[in-house]
């Protein structure tokens, strides 16, 4: 059935340093997975991480090693299983490794949808949106630069909603930076912040109160990943929406966070969820619990971003939009036709599978 599985690391410089509380990204390593069937059908997946091991518990190198050593022989050994049985086999034999599992699942679903001649979204329940709103993250670390960057994005009709990365500077400096940007861009522009778990609960009380008063729309993962009790207390205390990001690691954690009222919004990510199917499960749990949805990114390139878009396009209500801007942060294009970002949105392809074509010559030039 499956003839070969290749994992390729591609290092691409970013258009500017991207400063998060946990790391500053200057180069993004795309972890691309290519699965080829005996009939010559090719499926692609991606398992990029943020800053090696700075953000999560998988690195590009661990993903490659684990796919080459454990996933690939298992998949090659499959004789006659459908995709559901194949994914069950992987779950049974491989613990953890959500990012690697996501890349493999994406490539398998790409193949399956190509075989059926339908866009990948159609085998995830069906597309409800042909385009998805995409915000831009301001993370240059400099207030003036961020304001200029935002104004340029609005002029270009690329983005009209912005997420600000904070948490690496003293709290009051960060809060003043956010308020200055909100004032400069005006009341109609939605501003959100991502603290990337940098604040203690006490700092959250001081910081979030000021951000709420300044009409910031969303506070993303303000405190430690494990401190979900604090997340619940903050959600109960403030009117501004509190979003779980790093604390959300798939359907199990979605269930626990929902049960304990730990957030108003879930940042659904295909890699953090362990796959597109699991991301859809997370969204379903959120819907049942009355939690709003936001389509998150691990700053993937075009493969992971469009895979995410296929999953998110099946969500009935994406109240807080998406952040699928990863490809726009990169200085190199790896598709023969770039993803279509227009009118503040990412437009989904209609071709079978992921609906993209990889520029394999470019990959050869850029691969590590
Ligand atoms: C995160 O924590 O949300 C997503 C956008 C961005 O700038 O960083 C990532 C990770
Ligand atoms: Mg985040």
Strand content: 15-25%
**Sheet with most strands: strand arrangement:** 5-6-7-8-9-10-11
Rg, alpha carbons: 20 Å
CATH topology of the largest domain: TIM Barrel
What is the total tally of β strands? Answer: 13
Number of helices: 12
Count of domains: 2
The overall average pLDDT, rounded, is 98
Overall shape: it is globular
Bound molecules: [(2S)-5-oxo-2,5-dihydrofuran-2-yl]acetic acid, magnesium ion
Order of helices and strands: EEEHHHEEHEHEHEHEHEHHEHEEH
Largest sheet: 7 strands, parallel
Tell me the name of the CATH homologous superfamily of the largest domain.
Enolase-like C-terminal domain
* CATH class term of the largest domain: Alpha Beta
What would you say the CATH architecture of the largest domain is?
Alpha-Beta Barrel
List low-confidence stretches: none
The end-to-end span amounts to 29 Å
Structural class: alpha/beta
> Helix fraction?
25-40%
């Amino acid at each position: 059935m499956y003839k070969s599985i290749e994992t390729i690391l591609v290092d691409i410089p970013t258009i500017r340093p991207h400063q998060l509380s946990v790391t500053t990204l200057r180069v993004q390593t795309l972890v691309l997975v290519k699965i080829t069937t005996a009939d010559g059908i090719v499926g692609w997946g991606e398992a990029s991480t943020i800053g090696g091991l700075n953000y999560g518990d998988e690195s590009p190198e661990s993903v490659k090693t684990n796919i080459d050593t454990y996933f690939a022989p298992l998949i090659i050994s499959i004789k006659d299983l459908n995709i559901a049985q194949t994914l069950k086999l992987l779950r049974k034999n491989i613990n953890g490794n959500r990012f690697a599992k996501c890349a493999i699942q994406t490539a398998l679903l790409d193949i399956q949808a190509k075989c059926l001649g339908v866009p990948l979204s159609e085998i995830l329940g069906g597309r409800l949106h042909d385009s998805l709103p995409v915000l831009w993250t301001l993370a240059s670390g400099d207030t003036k630069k961020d304001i200029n960057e935002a104004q340029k994005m609005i002029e270009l009709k690329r983005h009209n909603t912005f997420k600000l990365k904070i948490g690496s500077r003293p709290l009051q400096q960060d809060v003043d930076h956010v308020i200055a940007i909100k004032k400069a861009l005006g009341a109609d522009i939605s501003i959100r912040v991502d603290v990337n778990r940098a604040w203690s609960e006490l700092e959250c009380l001081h910081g979030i109160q000021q951000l709420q008063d300044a009409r910031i729309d969303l506070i993303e993962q303000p405190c430690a990943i494990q401190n979900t009790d604090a997340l619940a207390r903050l959600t109960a205390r403030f009117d501004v929406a509190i979003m779980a990001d790093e604390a959300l690691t798939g359907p199990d954690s979605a269930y626990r966070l929902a049960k304990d009222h730990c957030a108003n919004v879930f940042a659904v990510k295909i890699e953090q969820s362990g796959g597109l199917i699991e991301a859809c499960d997370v969204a379903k749990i959120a819907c049942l619990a009355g939690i709003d949805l936001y389509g998150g990114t691990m700053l993937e390139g075009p493969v992971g971003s469009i895979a995410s878009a296929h999953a998110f396009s099946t969500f009935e209500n994406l109240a807080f939009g998406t952040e699928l801007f990863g490809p726009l942060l990169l200085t190199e294009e790896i598709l023969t036709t770039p993803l279509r970002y227009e009118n503040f949105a990412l437009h989904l392809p209609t071709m079978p599978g992921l609906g993209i074509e990889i520029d394999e010559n470019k990959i050869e030039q850029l691969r590590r």
